[in-house]
Amino acid sequence: MTTDPAVRLSPDLDRRAISAVYARHGRVHIPALFPADVAARIYQAMVSETPWSRVVSGETRHFDFGPGGWAAVPDDKRIELAHAVHQKGRAGFAYFYDSFPVADLHEAGQHLDSYLMRVYEFLNSESFLEFARAVTGAATIAFADAQATCYRPGDFLTAHDDGIEGKRRRAAYILNFTPAWRADWGGLLQFLDRDGHVAEAYTPAFNALNLVRVPQPHAVSYVNPLAAAARYSITGWLRER
To answer: pLDDT tens digits, residue range 14-28?
Structure first.
């Protein structure tokens, strides 16, 4: 019987150097966050053990098709909805991707045997929260929410800044779990300057954590047909009570 590895941070993280980059830029890319056995187990869970739901939005309308629900929609209706979302996304907020709402399911007592639930519990442990407070300088961070996401060719997330009144988000986080992703496949985490230019972009490198101060304009670029794999990540916000 195989025992799952305990979720834990890599012992080699240089917190002082990481926090210096975050303080200077309001964002930081942190490679090799977890030991190799933990990262490999998370990837396995995302690829072969997770019942994905397709989530779609154009402006303020959100659709969640549930596991297998998107495949059951007739082809003409899927094309029609995709066209409508593309129309909205040209001038507003829109997205297409697969989701597994880890925090919501954990709270509901569902899928508790999933290894992704162990990751979520770790993100809310004092070990990780203390690391997050040290890196961001936000001593009031009290908990993390989470969803797992899977972006396939044709998926995207248009520009937004995560600043929603009452949510008390201090930082966004993105944990990436796709081996050997290429930048020319798309799916980049892009940061936008005041003129709308891409000031910087992070490739979704395997076992890397991106921390982003909120609010800050960013987007996930279109995953194009060149992509030979899906873009897997665990994302959410570090929040105050």
So the answer is: 999 999 999 999 999
